[in-house]
Amino acid sequence: MSPGEIHGLIGENGAGKTTLARILGGLAAPDSGKVRIGGRAVELSGARQARALGVAMVHQHFSLVPSFTGLENIALLDPGAWNRRGAAARGYRERVEARARELRLAVELDQPVGGLGVGARQRIEVLKALMPDPRVLLLDEPTAVLAPQEVDGLLAVLRRVADAGGAVVLVAHKLDEVLAVATRVTVLRRGRRVLTTEVASTSAPQLAEAMVGSKVAGPATSSRWRGAPLEATPVARLAGVHARRDGRQALRGVALEVRRGEIVGIAGVDGNGQRTLAAVLAGVQRPDEGEAELPPEVGWIPQDRTEEGLVGGFTITENVALALHGRSALRSGPWLDWRGVGEAALGVMREMEVQAEGAEMAAGALSGGNQQRVVVGREFLRSGSFLVAESPTRGLDVKAAAAVRARIRELAAGGDEAPGIVLISTDLDEVLELADRTLVLVRGRLVEMAPGDRTHRAIGRAMLGADRAGGDDW
Amino acid sequence: MLTRKALRSTIAAAALLATAACGSDNTDRSSSNSADAPSVALLTSGPVSDAGWHAGAYEGLQLIRDSLRFRVSHQQTRTPAEFDEAFISYAQAGYGLIFGHGFEYQDAATRVGPQFPNVTFVVSSGSRPGPNVVPLVFHLNEASYLAGMAAGAVTQSGIVGMVGGVEIPAAKGTFIAFEAGVKAVRSDAKLLETHTGDWYDVSAAKEATAAQLRQGADILIHNLDAASFGFFQAVREARKAGGDAWALGMNLDQNDVAPDVIVASAMIDLPAVFLSTAEAWEKGTLRGVARYAGLRAGVVDFVPNPAQEGVIPLDALERIDSAREAIIAGTLEVPRIEFVEEEAAADG
Amino acid sequence: MRRSPEIVRGLLVAVVGLAVTAVVAAALLALGGHSPGATFAALIAGAFGSWDRFVSFTLVRATPLLFTGLAVALAFRAHVWNIGAEGQLYAGALAGVAVALLLPTSAPLLLLPITLVAAAAAGALWAAGPAAMRTRFGVGEVITTLLLNFVALFLAQFLVQGPLQEPRRIFNQTDSIPEAAHLPALLPGTRLHVGFALAVAVALALWLYLARTPGGLRLRTVGASPRAARVSGRFRATPVVWAAFLTSGAIAGLAGWVQIAGVTHRMYEGLSPGWGYTAIAVALLARLNPLAVVVTAIVFGALSAGGGAMQRDAGVPEAWVRGIEALVILAVLATDRCWQLLAARGEGG
After folding, report:
1. Does B33 touch chain C (CB under 8 A)?
2. How are beta strands A184-189 and A192-198 bridged, if at all?
3. Which site from A211, A469, C292, C328 is most exposed, i.e. has the minimal number of CB atoms within 10 Å?
4. Shortest CA distance from B341: residue in chain C
5. Which of C211, C216, C241 is CA-nearest to residue C226?
């Protein structure tokens, strides 16, 4: 790595990207080998020391304190924020604002970050990492949850950091982002470096092959895979739904009808009511106003697999039981039929090709991709008539994401028995690839896109139409 | 040197812990007297460092050890569940006389007693005698009656105060007798009675005492533990402010505790009671009936403070002396609260 | 649901902790002029010296700790921080005594079950207030359950000096409960009463409930992640939280009454030396596993039985005994923590 370089680190889930980033960030110690910073071999014993040596890290899972404001979170780990007696240094806020302007980062400094959207939280996370003016900035899969325009904004910020002489390590799973911004790229596979090359002298197919080890077909773009006519009666129906989340109005008059066999894509920038819409569609939250007609059982792949989709301390079997424990077929007397649940869990693992040491392995010990496979497979078990998928490929590698998408597609193609599917995603490519029709969720309102407007540009504009934080400043 | 010694002990202990044989009885470790000497044990439900009820019993135990050369042991118990266990353990270990210092030990003694007919269980303030269970009843009320007579003679306002801690029967009994003593000398006297609810709360005691002083009380008695300091302090301050108030000591001979304000104390000599009980046990005269410790046994008494001679009029002291004789002779009965259920008692 | 290695581990940790404490305590005892050898010999002989000692002393002392430990373990499993086992114990004790004394029946088959139900109900009722405060108003149960401990203590004082005082109204205790309300001996000739078997049965039932039933799965889920309960489990956490509060309170309530029905046969002011608080250490040390609580409760029972012997046979003052007990608890908890760290490192590497 040299100053001014943006280095892309790519690889499948479990390839070792995060581990490598953690070693550089001082959060994990290498079993052997050395880390050199500024030409000197250093032993990083913790994140604090790594920061002192000029390595800043933006985590895949945010490390912000939800009840603190943006400014407080930024100040928390920045030695420059405090004077010698431990009090807040004068003019710190002005310095933060100046830095944000310089990088053209639109940040909300005075709201508790817990109430902000993912994108807004990530901007704070990035600014927090950049405040001490680090020599190396590490970002672990930063684009997983962002809208296309937000991704562009982030990449622009990274470019500005590099132009100012900083080195950037970008851990990513999306090839096009790496190709768009990085100067050099390293591909990891199963813990080994398989390729390091100048971006200028490589191509997406070459990198993808290096990552996966075999050729991957590009995404099927606009081809229709299903021609069966739709039933007349919707399997799920929302009409004039208003709903609140944490006291704030999140949905404003949402209407939606989903029929068996169709995939309804809902695009939008994170924080525009997606979470509430999913909760209402899953039957977990009752609308304050309006009607929601839903089937008795709904599959729901939640956005946050570690906090909501799974219990990390539970085994895979127990996590499957969590979804199925209400079924009388899986009970004998007062007892849960653990054998039956175990078989269901093994079925999920087989179906979704989950890499694990068995169904009794703790879900928290699985890699992110395998965790998501468990969640998806389990929710398919409840998707007899209706499935809500919230960013189902978030944080997954190319192969895993393709597999999940293929499964969703297969599910929708199941003829008369196929469920209706609502795909809520901030990944516009995914929506365009999978959905039969596309709606955009903006500030709690659903806008249906005309079939001719299903393009990146048009949808992107609709997504940001009411986003005040939008524009060039990201 | 210390550390080396500690280290050696530590190693020894660790080795012992590793090899400790089950079933061994280690009973004679705490005693300085020979192993075949008679053995006496004491159970208290509070710390023996309280300078009062428990400390008195512990002093008694030490007196037994030093005077009679008996083997002794003590255990502080925390809950009623431990009482049976402690009695059984001591009985099994060969202790022939076991004191349970408080009424709370009565049930356990009654339960365990029949299992160990050769062991004598003594229960302070107990209520139910058995063949080998002996309630020990303290007639502090007799001394308290005499203190009441002194108060009746000293008071000029005719208002006499009583400041108590927790309203338990033993304490209540002393106040009933005190009141009778006051009335015997001065039938028109008015008595004030306050209970702070705490044996150890000094400031609450002081406040309660000051309140009674404001109501005109000019001689006061207490039944407090460590809180008596506040009681005496309140009286001292009233005297400094020009009042003519006096205090009476209780439970122990407190004349030295506050010689400037105390005119006399109603006291009980707990160590003496324990010693005489152990002597009776050794002689075989400690039978399965309640044992009373009062004026007659010489372990309860009314003691004027020599530093305040003359405050109690001479003729009053003479009346008190004749009352003492009458109580010992059995011709004067002092009011009391009867603990013992069966009326079969021997006098200590 | 592979739980048995945890029990083995808990036992091992307890043993290692005891050894560590032995060394530290021996040094302190030697400095204080007490013989460490005699002290430890007394400790062990007092707790395990003979079958009768183990059964009549250690297991009897372990019984209330087992009930309260289970109560705490169950609540903590659901992330219900019930610090109020002490108060619930007193509530159960008072209810059991009141029913036993006031109910005009002397049929053991009738009176004993009724008193047990009354005690459990009272314990649950004592936990219901904090449950409502938390689920309705979001008031943290650490404070509410703790404060109710003091209320229960004062209530016990009041009743024992007032309405429930023994008929002669001399001593601050209730009348003896009728024999029909006594818990029979579990092993004839020993002091061990049926209450111990009841406690072990409760432990087994809780374990089965947590490991094998849908309700147990829901409770564990709420403890691990209320959001996962809502999103993946599709159930509301509130009823589960209520169930955890009430069941925990009921079990703690049994602790108090079983102690009276099995050992003391009447109610005193100072019935518990703080079992409801020690229970927290008992439960945490057992890693909140009901079967492991049986083991840790017996370890604590042995410690307290041995503590008595340390006073009697080695002449160690009670303050020292308490200090050594505290040392053991600290050492065992520290050992457990070290184990966790080691295990975590092992997994990481």
Report:
1. no
2. antiparallel
3. A469
4. C168
5. C241
Spatial neighbors of C11 by CB under 8 A, at least 6 apart, are: C295
Q: Per-residue pLDDT tens for A127-155?
A: 888 887 788 888 887 876 676 777 888 88
Looking at the fold, whether A248 and A199 belong to one and the same domain comes out as no
- Convert the pLDDT of each residue in C173-225 to its tens digit: 899 999 889 999 998 888 999 999 999 999 999 999 999 999 999 999 999 99
The 10s digit of each residue's pLDDT in A241-286 is 999 887 778 899 999 999 888 899 998 877 788 889 999 999 999 9
- Which amino acid would we find at residue A63? S
C234 part of a folded domain? yes
Domain termination residue (choose one: A155, A180, A212): A212
User: Is residue A61's pLDDT more than 70?
Assistant: no
Q: Quote the CA–CA distance of B157 and B138 in Å, as a whole number.
A: 32
Q: What's the domain count of chain C?
A: 1
Q: Which residues pair with B98 in a beta bridge?
A: B41, B121
Contacts of B104 in chain C (CB under 8 A): 171, 173, 268
Dihedral (CA of C173, C174, C176, C180) sign: negative
Can you tell me whether residue A95 is helix, strand or coil? Answer: helix
Report residue A464's pLDDT band, with 50, 70 and 90 as the boundaries: low
Is there a single domain that holds both residue A183 and residue A263? Answer: no
Within the 133-172 window of chain C, which residues sit less than 8 Å (CB to CB) from chain B?
161, 168, 170-172
Q: What is the mean pLDDT of chain C?
A: 89
Contact assignment for C214 to A336 by CB distance below 8 Å = yes
**Residue C312 at interface with chain B, using a CB cutoff of 8 Å:** yes
Q: Is the pLDDT of residue A220 over 90?
A: no
Kindly state whether residues A269 and A227 are assigned to the same domain. yes
Q: How many CB atoms lie within 10 A of CB A195?
A: 17
Of C2, C214, C348, the CB nearest to A360: C2
Residue A205 and residue A243 in one domain: no
Asked if the structure places residue C19 within a domain, the reply is: no
Please identify among residues 62-121 of chain C the ones whose CB lies closer than 8 Å to any CB of chain B: 64
| Chains touching chain A, criterion 3+ CB pairs below 8 Å | C
Domain ranges across chain B = 140-268+300-335
**CATH class entry, domain B140-268+300-335:** alpha beta
Domain of residue C140 covers: 62-309
Buried b (16+ CB within 10 A) or exposed e, B316-348: bbebbeebbeebbeeeeebebbebbeeeeeeeb
Q: Which of residues 229-258 of C touch A (CB under 8 A)?
A: 230-234
Query: Does any domain span residue C221?
Result: yes
Assign residue A458 the CATH number of its domain: 3.40.50.300
Q: Are residues A36 and A157 in the same domain?
A: yes
**How many residues are listed for chain A in this entry?**
474
Q: What is the complex's ipTM, to 2 decimals?
A: 0.85
Asked whether residue C172 is domain-assigned, the answer is: yes
Please tell me the least confidently modeled range out of A17-31, B284-298, C199-213. Answer: A17-31
In terms of domains, do A185 and A247 share one? no
Residue A322 inside a domain? The answer is no
Domains identified in chain A, total number: 2
**Which of A196, A212, A228 is the last residue in one of the domains?**
A212
Same domain as A261, residue A205: no
Name the DSSP letter for residue C77: H
CB of B273 closer than 8 Å to CB of B58: no
pLDDT of residue C99: 95
Question: Which of A:25-84 have CB within 8 Å of C?
Answer: 28, 31
- Stronger pLDDT, B1 or A318, i.e. the higher one: A318
8 Å CB contact of A323 and C231: no
Residue C219 one-letter amino acid: L
pTM of the model: 0.77
**C311 at the B interface (CB within 8 A)?**
yes
Closest Cα in chain C, distance from residue A445 (Å): 23
Which residues constitute the domain of residue A41?
A: 6-212
Q: Between residues C62 and A455, which one has the greater pLDDT?
A: C62
Q: Which residue of B has its CA nearest to C64?
A: B81
As a whole number of angstroms, the distance between CA B164 and CA B181 comes to: 17
Q: Are A120 and A206 members of one domain? A: yes
- Quick check: A2 pLDDT over 90? no
Whether A209 has a pLDDT exceeding 90, the answer reads no
Q: Residues C291-308: what's their mean pLDDT?
A: 92
The tokens for A266 are: 């809902």
Banded model confidence at residue C333, pLDDT cuts 50, 70, 90: confident
Which of B 35-74 lie inside 8 A of C, CB atoms?
Answer: 41, 45, 47, 73-74
**Residues of chain A found within 8 Å of residue C224, distances taken between Cβ atoms:** 311-314
Task: Name the residue in chain C with its Cα closest to that of A302.
Answer: C231
Query: Count of CB contacts below 8 A, A vs C?
Result: 71
